[in-house]
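step=encode ok
step=design start
structure_in=
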């Protein structure tokens, strides 16, 4: 692609989106620029505190458990209380709990506060996704989600490199920096982002038409959630298994920071052009290929013996991430009814939160008992299974749903066998 073509593609990608989206995008970018805890928790516990990989896995799993609990709760809050109040509560709670985590000393206290951090930080995700679906036109949503994902990884690329060197001086400084940046996000949302939740009678639907029961009974959507969990289980190893394995092999936090920063840099460089390239491609093929590529990308880590080779393996599974993320997000949005966007996004977010719970336990146990090589082989197997699952699911999953389908009653969302939508008090 020429420079002129790249400039034209970038201009077309960023134009035409509402101002509210860009303030929300800015909040996302600031949040990720200050990210620290999720990336370096395992190194903090094993290298700075001297705990075993198993204990580190347990604490990070509790962080994930907090996310599991708050995923559905955050989705329900986004639908019932509103997107903006949910974001403000979640971001304020995250800032406070992250700051406390930097000071606690007792193992039980570290585990408890890590749970609170996971719960507070994950509660904002369904609200952000639902708000973007609310304020962006249907034809612009794929690129809006892609731009948001781009901001996440731009911040991640910067924070990974910076936090690696900060960790060598003071882990506490990293915790306090993340707390301060998260508070800035809350200020941006409070001052610049209005409420976007659809009104009580938007498109003729009452607010409580869609309950959690409807989401669970939506078989097509739940199939997507299950496969998303498998893919997330693999991708989580970039933040869980990889730092522990590199630390055990004698690499420093800065080494890991440089290797994993490749992930963010590649996404920043390639997300926009790749999204334009895959936008009208066959989603089934994209999901099958990206799942397998993720699994085998991590599988190649078994052969890495230097920072450069580790970085090359990161390149492989990052390409899978670039393809997988916007494709899956587009499917979730098309399958979500208007007044159930928060709950649907909460259930989808929960698949990643459950993976955050399972992945640390899995990686810690496998590394301690069998060695890192077996962990990378397991990733290859899981990626292959997920790819096969997408190949089967997408035969019956409608790829191009009409926008009106997102505004239909929960009867459509739960399938043709449901005669009456459930009214939920959740």
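sequence_out=
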């Amino acid at each position: 692609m020429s420079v002129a073509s790249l400039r034209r593609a970038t201009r077309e990608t960023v134009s035409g989106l509402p101002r509210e989206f860009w303030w929300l995008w800015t909040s996302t970018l600031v949040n990720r620029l200050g990210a620290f805890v999720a990336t370096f928790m395992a190194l903090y516990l094993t290298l700075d505190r001297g705990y075993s990989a198993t204990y580190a896995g347990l604490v990070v799993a509790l962080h994930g458990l907090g996310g599991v609990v708050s995923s559905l709760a955050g989705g329900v809050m986004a639908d019932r209380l509103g997107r903006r109040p949910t974001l403000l509560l979640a971001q304020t709670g995250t800032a406070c709990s992250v700051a406390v985590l930097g000071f606690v000393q007792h193992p039980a206290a570290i585990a408890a506060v890590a749970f609170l951090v996971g719960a507070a930080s994950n509660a904002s995700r369904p609200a952000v996704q639902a708000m973007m679906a609310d304020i962006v036109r249907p034809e612009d949503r794929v690129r809006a989600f892609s731009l948001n994902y781009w901001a996440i990884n731009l911040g991640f690329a910067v924070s990974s490199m910076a936090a690696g060197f900060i960790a060598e001086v003071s882990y506490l400084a990293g915790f306090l920096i993340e707390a301060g940046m998260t508070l800035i996000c809350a200020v941006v949302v409070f001052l610049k982002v209005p409420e976007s939740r659809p009104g009580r009678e938007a498109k003729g639907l009452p607010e409580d038409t869609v309950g959690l029961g409807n989401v669970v009974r939506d078989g097509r959507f739940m199939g997507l959630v299950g496969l998303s969990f498998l893919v997330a289980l693999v991708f989580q190893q970039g933040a869980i298994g990889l730092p522990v394995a590199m630390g055990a092999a004698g690499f420093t936090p800065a080494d890991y920071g440089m290797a994993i920063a490749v992930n963010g840099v590649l996404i920043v460089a390639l997300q926009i052009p790749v999204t334009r390239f895959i936008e009208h491609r066959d989603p089934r093929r994209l999901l099958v290929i990206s799942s397998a590529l993720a699994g085998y990308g991590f599988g190649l880590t078994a052969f890495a013996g230097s920072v450069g080779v580790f970085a090359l393996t990161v390149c492989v599974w990052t390409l899978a991430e670039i393809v997988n993320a916007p494709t899956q997000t587009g499917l979730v949005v098309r399958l979500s009814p208007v007044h159930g966007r928060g709950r649907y996004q909460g259930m989808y977010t929960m698949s990643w939160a459950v993976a955050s719970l399972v992945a640390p336990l899995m990686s810690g146990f496998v590394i301690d008992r069998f060695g890192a090589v077996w962990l990378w082989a397991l990733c290859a197997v899981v990626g292959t299974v997920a790819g096969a699952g997408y190949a089967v699911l997408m035969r019956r999953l409608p790829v191009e749903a009409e926008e009106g389908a997102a505004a239909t009653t929960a009867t459509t969302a739960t399938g043709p066998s449901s005669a009456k939508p459930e009214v939920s008090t959740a």
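step=design ok
step=annotate ok -> The chain has 19 helices and no strands.
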